[in-house]
Amino acid sequence: MAPLLNTNLQAFNLTVSTLLKQPSHFLPNLTIPTFLELPEQIGQHLASSTSSTTSPPEQKPQRIPQIKALVLDKDNTLCPPHTTTIPKPYLDKLERLRTSPTSPFNINTNPDGVLIVSNTAGSRPDVQKYVDEARTLEEKLAYLRIRVFRVQAPATTGSTDGAGVGAGVKGRRKPFCGPDVLAWFRERGVINQPDEVVVVGDRLGTDTLMAAQMGSWSVWCKDGVTHSVTDQPGMDYRGFLAKVEIVLERYLRESRGVKARVPNGWE
């Protein structure tokens, strides 16, 4: 099997380039402490955050994004890192998003509206641990019909596989797999355009940056999976880079006055 692209080095280069040229792409459209605080009517909250970065409401009527697709990170967003353990409050939150009659991600009205996109589970077909993680997550979430995005090896071409990876350059992981994720939703009739997608995750350099590359919206889970819902009191799962991002985000926003970019047409 051909080796996957060296996305770690590529992601680092992209992050540095973005910070120098387009720092607004590094800032999320909405910040919440954890996935538990994700609003069901996410479009309305994105509209409120957008109104502060664009024209004043009295000059331009407020538009509300019509969000139809939810992209979820796994590590430190849904699960403690390197596990497939979804704490019960997080699982309950997923259930509400999939069963609430008013949710845009209701399983009956939008069965393919939620997709887990991870740089571990499903991201390396040549790493059995990541293959097993994707399968385990899908088994746990089968009753909610939540799939895990699979990255294919670069040598793989042709039609999509059973996991439904969209067309495009194979072997791309976050933040480069945005076009493939968009294709996944388009193939299933979930979306027509990128601004109907919101990406939720704990990392600015992967999740938020991928949303910017996609032309979609981003939600940053700043605290990740908190210790209060795990069996390890006092545990902070944020790694070194995640903590650096917290400082960097504050610097860009408060010291530099940088505003989060918005999808095309929402300026």
From TrEMBL:
Q: Which domain of life is it from?
A: Eukaryota
Q: Name one GO molecular function term.
A: phosphatidylglycerophosphatase activity
The record's listing under InterPro entries reads: HAD-like_sf, HAD_sf, PGP_Pase
User: What is the name attached to this protein's record?
Assistant: Uncharacterized protein
Species of origin: Talaromyces pinophilus
